[in-house]
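Sample A.
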Amino acid sequence: QVQLVESGGGLVQAGGSLRLSCAASGRTFSAYPMGWFRQAPGKEREFVATINWSGGSTYYADSVKGRFTISRDNAKNTVYLQMNSLKPEDTAVYYCNGDLPTGTYWGQGTQVTVSS
């Protein structure tokens, strides 16, 4: 059974940092792109960042560019999202995403709350 499990969310003050992790199991994701999305209350889920299979190529939403960094450790089947200079508008549930030939997989999400 393919499973993505996010962790690392929490409550942080504006200007602070958090590091999210997404551990994959049941299938090796190391050959495929992975990404992070987020959904704020009352809003649609939006793209945050993506990384290719090797980690050599990344892409970010304009709203997080320069503040967030996506990375991966294929030996651990894990992808990370380092979030710095957090803003209250970054408050959302953050979801990990993996695109495999068998389909697109999502984690259950981890809550990030940034207080002003």
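Sample B.
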Amino acid sequence: VQLQAYGGGLVQTGGSLRLSCVVSGGIFTINDMGWYRQAPGKQRELVAEIMSGGSINYADSVKGRFTISRDNAKNTVYLQMNSLKPEDTAVYYCNAQYYSDHVDYNLWGQGTQVTVSS
């Protein structure tokens, strides 16, 4: 099973980007999914998470600007990022907690760079 993230890039302040992350490669049940980010010299932090039951949590710094969603039929989680700021610049990682063959797993994607220019 693997996570593949798409959609990073360079954007100006105030612009938008949409990140996607697809889980593939096995027989599994996905529980919680989320996006984290890590800026240079900083620890990885939670950006947004969406639980299997649909509840959502956002970091205070992105509330009102970012929207997380998921398509269970496609095993995909999205992060719509609007009104981007330079401080949103980071490598963004998707995360999926899934269940397969009676075992729980916590899986990370490879990361995608988001750069917001001032």
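B remarks: The first strand starts at residue 2 and ends at 6. The CA atoms of residues 64 and 82 lie 9 Å apart.
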